[in-house]
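Late entry, (6S)-5,6,7,8-tetrahydrofolate complex.
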Amino acid sequence: MRILFLTHSFNSLSQRLYLELTGRGHEVSIEFDISDAVTLEAVAMCRPDLIVAPFLKRAIPEEIWRRQICLIVHPGIRGDRGPSALDWAILNSEQEWGVTVLQAAAEMDAGDIWASANFPMRAASKSSLYRNEVTEAAAVAVLEAVEKFEAGGVRPEPLDDARPDVRGQWRPAMRQEDRAIDWLHDGTATVLRKIRSADGFPGVLDEVLGVACYLYDAHPETGLRGAPGEVIAHGNGMICRATVDGAVWVGHLKKKQEREPAFKLPAAQVLGERLAGVAETPAPSPQPSPTEGRGGKTWSDIRYEEKNAVGTLHFEFYNGAMSTAQCGRLLQAYQEAIRCDTKVIVLAGGADFWSNGLHLNLIEAADSPADESWRNINAMNDLARAILATDSHLTISALQGNAGAGGVFLALAADRAVAREGVVLNPHYKAMGNLYGSEYWTYLLPRRVGEERAGEITGNRLPVGARQAKELGLIDGCFGGDAAAFRCGVEALAESLAADAPALLAAKRAERHRDEAGKPLTAYRAEELAQMKRNFYGFDPSYHVARYNFVHKVPHSRTPRHLALHRRIGVK
Ligand code: THG
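Prediction complete; structure with ligand written out below:
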């Protein structure tokens, strides 16, 4: 079928559905929701068999939904309606939630139901639930709905039939008052629910050390205590605030300000001098220790754990962005890890992202974005080089979450790269203002897929699903329907590499020597950085413009031609 996506943006959920549908032979064209007139034009040009709205905030015009079926992906259980579905589910401590695919009608979210899929809730932020449980359920429900539509003769279920499920009901847009934190009364669990219900957008509005700001990226702390509401510590850019029964770490803040546009930054950077009297906790120790995970004592973005001959490094960076400082700390943790008496290092990334490369928000905030871009890409490269040059251990990049841009190529620096089945990769830089890219990609990518495919992958600017990435040779393996199954598979792979370590390490050293003799890594790096220097400091400001638009979430003014197939000249 020809399917048109009407969507606010090509977000991770839209990308996943795009991959599922194109993977089943459907032709999917994309149109961003710019205005009703532009949408009408797109529908006329595309003449789709079916319209799907994976992530749409505004109403589809009546002229469209009256004439043909439009399927809306709603992140709520059957009968649930309204624009803040997941926010309410988190705030109300729902134990089970779901995704419903419903038909667009006049009354918002009140159309007939085509399919739904439920999942158990997890203590996590809205965006983490969206990127994991909601995305998996949406893939199931959308495929079911599309199959029903294609088969024909299926009548969707009217909303009234779903109403007996008392939990499903209309809920209004959530307001700041609905989730405002009362530091003198709210316990840690409540504070976490409130912040998580609004993370990544819009954030909970609060005041920290006299600064009005939105809070994001909250984690429990059980070791530190203080007067409720007080900022009791800071470290690695995060701040720790006491609650009535414990404390929470807050990683990111966005200043509330009327004029100057603000964006999310590490909390300590936003507060600056105001943190003068607050104790700095020692930097998190990447030492091998029986780790307690996120619920444990002092939360840390970088964690090391060890089991038998396998060391695992977790790096949970907000939105997968890796700043110069984070790259440096991860490099240090990596160097300590390879001094341990283990055979295999698993680079596990975070639960939501493996890595998305450069930290564009911090670059945007720097006095000289060009200089900070330069420092950040060099820090990424130093990390990639350390992984590439490791001859004492075998290394595995285990992508439980998505990766994009430099993050994908960093993953390829390991001896093996494997991904969870639902992972979406964006192995290209061009979308960010025509960046050339570095991270030794000119060495790592052709080595795996050949020159021709390397050119296609980086030039297409399209997402690549984990299974497709395995078929292309971009990665070595793709398994595990959920995080737990994936971790099991990674553990088995790591154990098998450890068992074969002497032979595998000998082969690895020989290959590295051969490659180095053919063309040294320093040459790849120098060539890539010469191009990046032009991107950062040259005459063409495309990268700086694209980064500004990305960081400030400037609304799209058109759909890129490579996504809007219906707008390509000569295609009908
Ligand atoms: N029918 C039609 N178009 C649709 C839907 C539909 N477009 C997408 C939409 N469903 C997704 N669901 C909603 C439900 C409610 C609201 C928005 C999208 C809503 N919006 C408030 C408004 O428009 O005033 C603002 C909410 C806010 O502040 O975020 O209530 O079923 N044809």
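The pocket of (6S)-5,6,7,8-tetrahydrofolate is lined by residues 53, 56-57, 59-60, 65, 72, 82-83, 104-105, 108-109, 111, 173 (CB under 6 Å). Will revisit in the morning.
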